[in-house]
């Protein structure tokens, strides 16, 4: 259905209002009416679908589609199944779309339908966005969404920077006296009898030679008198 309307729109006479670029947003798949299969009395498919327009369509959007639908298809497809328009509408809201290009523009919405209390909840940006500069708005909805996106990103970066500035700086812990590793080499106790002075004493004794008793015995054997005036027998 969408491709058929795009082909027919291209056949509108030069200077037609509906050839203007500001109507391009109406030619998106989510804005097309859903087709219904209605069987005949015998339960067979009659070879055509029934289309019911949504109740939210504005008078301008309805006029646009009706004008385009009257144009002869310049390149008819053999596989195309005709649609029959039902006189009644179906009361469904504009479809939710992740891509902003697929959301309904405000010029497409019937203001009386939107003003009803039961329909006010549908006036959200996931369904309906502003019409754009071509319709007298200050900016296009795509630019508005991009601007809000940049603002949120910058706000998020600023928030992270503030958190980083407020975060406490950890200082290295100092070891308390008596805890942790000691500085320098501890003094080892010398075992008894193994001191430096003891070693010197032993060394002096060995250098001094034999004791007095040994010398006295040697003198008696040789018939000499001891150096202390006593005779050793």
Evaluate the radius of gyration.
Answer: 54 Å
Any low-confidence stretches, pLDDT <50, length ≥5? 195-208, 219-233
What is the count of DSSP helices, taking H or I runs of 4+ residues? 6
Strand content: 5-15%
SS elements, strand count: 5
Order of helices and strands: HEEHEEHEHHH
Average pLDDT score: 79
Spatial order of strands in the largest sheet? 1-2-3
Characterize the largest beta sheet: strand count, sense, and whether it forms a barrel.
Answer: 3 strands, mixed
Q: Distance between the terminal alpha carbons, to the nearest Å? A: 150 Å
Shape from CA axes? elongated
Structural class of the secondary structure composition?
mainly alpha
Estimated helix fraction: 25-40%
Describe this structure in words.
This protein is mainly alpha-helical and 233 residues long. Helix content is 32%, strand content 5%. The protein contains 6 helices and 5 strands, in the order H-E-E-H-E-E-H-E-H-H-H. The chain has helices at residues 2-9, 59-69, 111-115, 141-166, 196-208, 212-222, and strands spanning 35-36, 49-51, 83-85, 104-105, 128-129. The chain has a 3-stranded mixed sheet with strand order 1-2-3, with no helix packed on it. A two-stranded parallel sheet has the order 4-5. Strand 4, helix 3 (111-115) and strand 5 form a beta-alpha-beta unit. It is elongated, with a radius of gyration of 54 Å. It starts with a helix and ends in an 11-residue tail after the last helix.
